[in-house]
């Protein structure tokens, strides 16, 4: 299945609960034109807040979990979320 086919499938058969969010995302993509990012993301200020020790430890823990193979595939996450 091509990406275009998959997009058609998703547009034709979205989960009912996802319709409002889907509409907002599609409208934002259309408004963004060829730039590829919705204006709200493109124009958002850079996050210059320093990383905390707790955040650094969480990132390190995540990398270690990945190295041990403790992760979910995208398909598992989609299934869990009902997509």
Estimated share of beta-strand residues:
under 5%
Distance between the termini: 17 Å
Categorize the overall geometry.
flat
Largest sheet, if any? none
Structural class: mainly alpha
As for the number of domains, it is 2
Average pLDDT, all residues: 84
Total count of helical runs of at least 4 residues: 5
Low-confidence stretches: none
Helical residue percent band: 55-70%
Would you kindly provide a written description of the structure presented here, covering whatever features stand out?
The chain contains five helices and no strands. The chain is flat. It folds into two domains: 1-44, no CATH class; 52-83, no CATH class. The model has no long low-confidence stretch (mean pLDDT 84). The longest helix is centred in the C-terminal third of the chain and has 15 residues, at 53-67. It has 83 residues and is mostly helical.
Write a short abstract of this structure.
With 83 residues, the chain is mostly helical. The protein has helices spanning 3-12, 19-32, 39-42, 53-67, 74-81. It folds into two domains: 1-44, no CATH class; 52-83, no CATH class.
Outline the fold blueprint.
Layout: H1 3-12, H2 19-32, H3 39-42, H4 53-67, H5 74-81
Spell out the key features of this protein.
83 residues, 61% helix, mainly alpha, 2 domains, 0% strand
């Amino acid at each position: 299945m091509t990406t275009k086919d998959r997009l058609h499938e998703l547009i034709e058969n979205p989960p009912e609960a996802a319709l409002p969010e889907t509409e907002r995302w599609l409208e934002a993509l259309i408004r963004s034109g060829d730039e590829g990012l919705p204006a709200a993301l493109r124009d958002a200020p850079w996050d210059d807040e320093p990383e905390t020790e707790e955040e650094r430890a969480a990132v390190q823990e995540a990398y270690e979990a990945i190295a041990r193979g403790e992760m979910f595939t995208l398909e598992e996450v989609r299934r869990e979320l009902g997509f």
